[in-house]
Amino acid sequence: MGKSEFEKYAAGHAGISSLKLHRFNTITQYLGRGTLDEQTAAAMKALAKSKLEKALQDSGYAQGGYAAEMEQAALLAEAKETMER
């Protein structure tokens, strides 16, 4: 299975906080274009922040599933699932 564009980005940039910054910038761009509503964008940013905090505390998670969970599609799906509850 090939790596996603985000995983390629993550591999080329040092530090897990840069992944959060990259994702926040993407969310902000989508919000500005009208592709995301404010509630969904806020939920995605909250998820990204909590995933960063988890990655800072758990190096196994940081090296493993963090990049995949920070992909735009994964965050969007999780945010929608969370908002439906």
Description:
The protein has 85 residues and is mainly α. Helices cover 79% and strands 0% of the residues. It has 6 helices and no strands. The protein has helices at residues 5-12, 17-33, 38-57, 59-63, 66-69, 72-84. Helix 2 (17-33) packs antiparallel against helix 3 (38-57) and helix 3 packs across helix 6 (72-84). The longest helix has 20 residues, at 38-57. The radius of gyration is 13 Å and the shape is globular.
Average pLDDT reading: 85
Structural class from helices and strands? Answer: mainly alpha
The SSE order reads HHHHHH
User: Which descriptor suits the 3D outline?
Assistant: globular
User: What is the straight-line distance between the termini?
Assistant: 32 Å
Quick one: biggest sheet? none
**How many β strands by DSSP?**
0
Uncertain spans:
none
> How many DSSP helices?
6
Q: What's the layout of helices and strands?
A:
Elements: H1 5-12, H2 17-33, H3 38-57, H4 59-63, H5 66-69, H6 72-84
Helix pairs in contact: 2-3, 3-6
How would you concisely characterize the structure shown here?
The chain has 85 residues and is an all-alpha fold. Helix content is 79%, strand content 0%.
Essential attributes:
85 residues; mainly alpha; 6 helices; 0% strand; globular
